[in-house]
Automatic annotation (TrEMBL):
Organism: Oryzias sinensis
UniProt protein name: C-type lectin domain-containing protein
InterPro entries linked: C-type_lectin-like (IPR001304), C-type_lectin-like/link_sf (IPR016186), CTDL_fold (IPR016187)
PROSITE patterns the record matches: C_TYPE_LECTIN_2
Domain C-type lectin: 22-113
Lineage top rank: taxon: Eukaryota
Length: 145
């Protein structure tokens, strides 16, 4: 099975308290991993911030739109802690069945999330990364005048 990890870097830009605030995420993915889930997460933490945690349907659809269809799987930031699936960045529960596997993959071929044992060793790690930036929200703050 070929796989890679999807990493995330969060940017919060606030030019002035009374002007535009932008929240943006920069995604990066590696090609052709032979890393297990914990190793892939350590790689993301070393080079970026962490593995991606999907916040909403828009973000999931965006990831689906730019991730290549090869390799088949991507490691993402979900882990099993105390018999509950949680996002790695917030520790909030994920609405997935509590299976025995400690890690989650994104299956890009069918555009679905899936579960895979962390003991699966992935093949041929190549440290090639593609960065993609996407701004999901821009908010104007009201002035008190």
């Amino acid at each position: 099975m070929r796989s890679c990890s999807v990493c995330i870097y969060f940017q919060h830009i606030e030019i002035d308290q009374n002007t535009v605030r932008a929240e943006a995420w920069t995604y990066a993915y590696s090609k052709g991993s032979n890393l297990q889930w914990h190793e892939a997460r350590q790689w993301c933490q070393k080079h970026f911030v962490d593995m991606v945690s999907i916040k909403n349907k828009e973000e999931a659809e965006y990831l689906d739109s730019f991730l290549p269809h090869n390799p088949t799987y991507y490691w993402i930031g979900v882990q099993k802690v105390a018999a509950k699936w949680t996002w790695v960045d917030t520790s909030k529960p994920v609405p997935l069945p509590a299976l025995r596997s400690p890690a989650v993959l994104m299956e890009n071929v069918r555009r679905q999330w899936g579960i895979s044992p962390a003991s699966v060793t992935l093949v041929s790690w190549v440290s090639t990364v593609r960065k993609v930036s996407k701004t999901f929200s821009k908010k104007k703050q009201k002035t008190n005048s």
